[in-house]
Each structure stands twice: as C-alpha cells, then as structure tokens.
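Q: Predict the bound structure with adenosine-3'-5'-diphosphate.
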Amino acid sequence: MVKYCSPHRLILSVLILSYISLTIFLGITNDLNVYKWKLNQQNRYRIINGSFSSKNLPFDQHNNHQLIGSSTSLKNQLQTLSWPENRKQRSSVKKYKILIITRRNKLSSLARNIITAIEANKFSYSTTIGDNLPQYLTNKRYFKLLIFDSLKFYVNLSQRSKIMINSYCKEQKGVGILVFAVDESVYHTSIPAFSTIQFLPDIKSVTINSPNPMLRLTRNGGNITDYLPNRSWTVFNNYKNLQPVFYINGKNGKQYVGGLLDDGKDDGIRRVFFGNSIEFWLVRLLFIDAIDYLSHGTFQRQLNRWLQVDVDDVFVGKKGIRMTDHDVAAMLKGQEVIQHNVKNFKFMLGFSGNYFMKGLSTENQGDKALISNASNFWWFCHMWKHTKPHLFQTTESLIADMKRSQAFAVKFNLRIVPGYSVSPHHSGIYPAYEPLYDAWKKVWNITVSSTEEYYHLNPAHKRKGFIHQQIKVLPRQTCGLFTKTLHFKSYPGGIQRLNQSIFGGELFRTLTDNIINIFMTHMPNYANDRMAIYTFVHAINFLKKWTNINLSSIPPLELGKRYFRLYPDEKDPLWFNPCIDKRHKAIWPYVQACKQLPNMIIIGPQKTGTTALSLYLSLHPKFRANKASKRTFEEIQFFNDNNYHKGLKWYMDFFPSIDQSTSEQQIRYFEKSATYFDRALIPKRMHALLPDASIIIILSDPIKRAYSWYQHMRNHSHPAAMNHPFYQIITNEKQDRIIKQLQDRCMRPGKYVTHLERWLEYYHPSRVTIVDGGQLIDDPVRVMSDFQAKLNVDDVLDYSTKLQFNKRKGFFCVKRERGRSKCLGRSKGRKYPPMDKESENYLKKFYKPYNIKLKEVLESHSLTIPLWLKEQI
Ligand code: A3P
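A: Predicted complex:
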C-alpha cells in the first residue's frame, strides 16, 4: 500500500490518468464528426446494372467494320433534372466559388487535375494554402465548397482551424467539404474512419455503391474491370458510420472502400472522401457529383448535352484513301446506331465541290452514294478548292470561290444547314480575318461557326466561344482522330491510346464536361478503317452506360443561341497576339506586321497631362507614337468597344512596320488613349494582346482633375456645364440625369484606387509606372529623367535640352530655335477661374477614403506615391 501511495507515484498516476483522459477528450473533440450513416431512401434514380469490359467490344482486327448495338435508353427511367437554365440560378453559380485548399505552395498534380476539372466545368474557384485558411476565410462569404487535396493535412488541422472551418460551413448554409487521400496513410486512432491504409493494387474490379444520394451525373453501369488506374490506392478502414461511395474488389476476394460519404446528418456538414485521384474516370465523374451534392446544388450542371459531328472535306483526298459506296453505307449504319442514343443526330458534311468524282472508280461510286443519300445528312458549304481563306487577297475573290460551292450545292440538291460553316485549318475564323467574315455574311449568310483555336488549341478545356461581326463562333472539340490517321494499326501510340480516350479518357471527359460538343472529323476517318464510326459509337455507348447524360442534336443556329445563353460572358472576343502562337501565325495573313504592336501604353486618366507626356516621349529618339489618323482624331482608343470590334489589323495599321536595322529594332512604340484607365473591360483586353507592355498611369490631384474636366466640358458647350456651377454638378442635389452624366465623368475617374486595382489584377506592378501629374506640370525634366530610369532606357535624353518654361502659356513647352517654343494647343493648359472653396472642401471629403486606400495600394506594390498624395494623407 505504502508503495502505491508514495507521493511520487501518486503524482505520476494522476499525470498519466490526466493524459489519458485528455487524449480521449481531445480524440473525441478532434473527431470532425461522430459519423452515423442512414441510408437515404429518396434516391433520385433507378439504377440499371450492367457490366463493362473492353474485351466484349466489337472491335476486332479482322472485322473492324462491325458496329455494336445501342444500350437501353434511360430517358424514361430518369427523373428529369435540368441544370439551372433560369438566369437567377445561373447568376448564383457565377457568384459563388469553390475553394481549393492545398497543402503546399507548389500545386500537386492532384491539385492541378482538380483545377482542370473545375475549369472544364466552368465553375469559379480560388486556391489557397492550408496554413492561412482561417485568415483567408474571414469575411469571404462566397465559398460553397471546400476541397482539400490532402486528408492527412485535413485531419491534422489545428483545433482552432477545425472549429473555424466547421462554423464557416454551418454559417454559410450548405458548404460541404471534399477531401482527397491520394498516396497517403493517416493512422489516427481517434478517427477510425480515417485510419487509412496503403493498398498496392491487385485489383479485379471497381463497383459503385448504389443507392447513393450523391449520384446524379454518374450512373451505376456495373463492374468496372478495364482501364483501372495503374497506381496505388488509399482505401478506408472501419467506415461503419459512413456510406461507401465505391468499392474496390481485390483479386484476393476482399472488398475495400475507395470513397466515403458523410451525409451531414450529425453536424449539418456534408463531406466526401476520395482515396484516388481524379485521373481515374470514375472518381472524376463522382467528383462532379460530389461538387453538386456538397454544395447543395449550387454547382450543378444540367444533364443535357448537345452533339454535332462535322465531317469535313467529304470529297477531298488522294486516290486510294477516299470513301467507297460501302463506306457510305457503313456511315449511314453508324449514324443510325448513334441516333438510338442521340436524338436527331445526323453527320454534318462539309464539301469542296472541286474534288467531286476525282477518286478511283470505286471511290467515285462513294461520291455518288453520298450525293444520292444527301438528304440523310446535313451539309455545310466549304471553300471550293479547300483553300485557306486567309490566302485570298480580297473579299471579292473569297466571294467568287464561295459562290462556286453554292452553285454545286444547288446542282446536287444538297440539304445545306442554314447559317453554318467552318474553314480549312480554322483559317480566318481565329485570328479573325475580316474578309472571311464579310464574305460569309454576303454569300452564305453565315451566323454560326466553330473553331478549336480560341483562345488556343491547348489547353483544350479552356477553349471558348465568341461573337464577331454578329457571327457566333463556338468552341470545337477534338476527339483523338487525325486527318491523316487512317488505320488502327498506325494510330499514334497504338489503338490502346484511342481506346483509353474513348473509355473514360479525354474524349469521355470532353463529352461529360461540355454541354455543347462540336467535333471535327474528316472524310478519311470514315473510309479505310472507319475509325470515326468506331470512336463515336463506342464513346456514346460508354457515356450512356456510365452517366445519366441525355444526348441530342439541334441545328447549329440553335446551338449558337444556346451556347451564349449558357455563357453570355464569352460573347465579347479577346484578341491575342497571333504571332505568339505557331498555329495562329500559320493562318494569319499579316505576319509581317508581327512586330507592329506597341509595348508601352499611356492609359490615362483624362485631364492629368497625358497629352504632355505623350509629346515629351515622342521627343525621345527611342520612343515613337502611333501614326496620326483622321479616323480617330487624337487617340486610337482601340481597346474601347467600337474600335475593338474592328479587329486587330485595324489596330496594327496605326503602327509602322519596323525595318530590320538594329537601331530601328530598339524603337519602342507607344500609344496614348486616356479613357483606357477607368473602363472595366480594358485591362483584360489589353493584357490578352499586350501582356508585356509597360502601363503608364498619370495621377494628379483628383480634385483638380475633376475641375479640369468640368472646364473642358464648358469649352465644348456641354449644356449641364454651361448652365450649372461646378458645385451643383458635383453634388447633383436635383438628381438630374444630364448632370449625373457629367458628374460621373468629372468624379469617377478620380477614384484612382478602384481602377488601379483592376489593372493590377492583370499586370504585375513591375510593369506599371506611375507618373506624378503635379510634378509633370512643375518639373517635367525631372519626371522624364525618372521615367527613363524606371524603364531602363539606354540612350537617356536630357530633357532640359528639349523643354523650357513658357511664361505666356504658364506651362513647359518644346524648345524651338531662337528662344522660341512650341506649346500644346489651346485645349491643354486652359486659363479658368480658380475653384470655389465650397467645391474644394466637398471634393476633399469625397476623395479622402479613396486616396487613403490609394496610398496603401501604391505602397504595398512599391509604386511611386505622387507628392500631392503624400501631402494630403
Ligand atoms: P487644364 O487644361 O485643365 O489645365 P490631358 O492631356 O490628359 O487632357 O490633360 C490636360 C492637362 O494637362 C491640362 O489641364 C494641364 O493641367 C496638364 N498639363 C500638364 N503639362 C502640360 C503642358 N506642358 N501644357 C499644357 N497642359 C499641361
């Protein structure tokens, strides 16, 4: 007894007991949930079981023209669930975001795949590093889903972070958590569900666990035995309080759990855990469902998909690789099979009449068979000789070529689909070649086209649509078929590669991610091994087997309308520099103009001294302004709406081509358009075209700037400026519309920080130069010296040799011979009465918060702080 009661032992026992209780307590509180799962009886779909094995596929080296039958249509069995087509719901998708929380600064390949899938499904997202999470989430109310790329990181979050995250999820109503455990073990005894183990697979198959409230896009098609990922899996042990999402069946006869679902019954937070990367197609499908389920439908996509398959150049091809009448019959048969799964489907044939009946005699039979079956297909007009439109010098020559195709269509009674065409090698569509757009409208009344070149061919998931000259250009998708691949045995990377794409790979992802899919195929894909028929029949069957997607076809005009109803933000095109993309350069007729873009832009704002700075710069031998033009008066204003839609060539023509001499090559072209600064769309547009440009912003006291604009408007006899004193304009107590407009132009640009932040979203601060507008008036020689230093100009010009103060003008002017000088015109540096005190005080108060913020932003980016700002704050 004594032994046990010794004080040391007693203290030790108390300590041990406290430690154990503390551990148990922490274990319990550390558990993110007390998991309890109840089967959700209100499952949304009746799932049909089936099995998939590529060995059963009809493709066989000896009989590779055989087609498979269609799978049972689900249409009648599906409860119709459509994606938010109405505007209110769609805008909520835009408003809310997914937050991806990564373990490390450098993105893991899993995190990159997650981002790709999210971008491909056009959801908004942000990423942050886990350590900053509580801080990051503060005051951000727009996240509807948190994704962790590491389970280990998630379970080991600090207690404070866990509490914070859980309360965020609850407070924001319906924020779920999705966690990946890839290649990681988490032994954490207090959280049984997460005592995961590494499992190096000897896997027989994978099975979806259904019914399962999460399944929407995903359909349980049975056992998956092929194309299983060739990597280790993390499986979940001891999951009795959670619902398995899918099972992994080992060759040893054991079943493991590869995904877990917590329906949030216990603490109101839904969670899903995946033990494999989304590289595995099933996990990727379930991932999209999980996003929907965990966000309570905020990120939900409709189940409808629209499909168009273009067959380009039906008559174009060398003898020996063209279609015979048997191929045409197989094509029709394939079309029939596809029609079982895709309502209203018909191949869309593009023809170049010049090559009609130019094959072997069997192939000419093929041409005839196409014509005699013309009414079973849709047709679209193409260039007569398959010439790339950008090679035509004029709109007239293009028109003449197109008219020949039109005559061919009339002669053979082809069923031309209204308003649709594409062009060889995407030439003229993007980068836009204006004569093509003009000719398209004049001859064929084209209103819809498609290309895979916008923004660029790769990455494919970022392709977009745009509207130019009222023609809707939709993104076109690739399907693993090449113009020149004719035989299975010569398929690049082997037939296995094509199969991988079809059965869960790239093609499958394309069909599931894109609501509207337009594929381009070519005639030789339907002749020879008929690879296109094989591809589409199998891809569609696979899609029907594993998803609840409804496929159908609609005419291109409808497709165009639908696309921009879904993605109105894409209407406005972005012009990128064609010379930085090899493919674009090859179809851009103006390559000689490649160096004809400016690399320095004075963006404003108006009335801060932009004209003076522009004049001073043009005195420097290494800076050259755009050519003067009567069309645009003083400024080009290219990035503003009206001119931007005139296209790139229009802009480039303002800059002379640079000759090859080295001295000329060092010239920096610049442009000055003072309204760029405060227009919302311009930073994005400018960055797309001129990502490396130097952005020059002049900041003068916004109070003086506002008054200068008012005086400018008085000089232009603006009715509100003529009839109302400045104070009435800036206060607009009468709430008059015309006064409001003038007030806006007086005061809005001066909220400098608001506009500057928009520019900094696109341009790195090192590309931004701030010029002090006050100093530019008082000491331009010094400003120009600092300016040259900031831009690392080699031949530094001493502006004291170029500028002198002109007493009469009251400003610095350019020195001329014999002590004379040339000043800016009458509209710059006007003489007007000083501003009244009342207005000055009013504006001081008005701009104060903006100026305080401006100073902070400038400081945080190590940008020049103008003297007037230092004095005011
Ligand atoms: P005021 O005419 O109200 O004095 P912008 O060229 O951006 O429209 O700016 C015009 C303003 O540039 C003038 O406004 C003037 O204050 C300022 N400025 C700066 N340097 C100048 C100069 N050398 N000559 C004339 N105006 C100058």
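A: The first strand starts at residue 51 and ends at 52.
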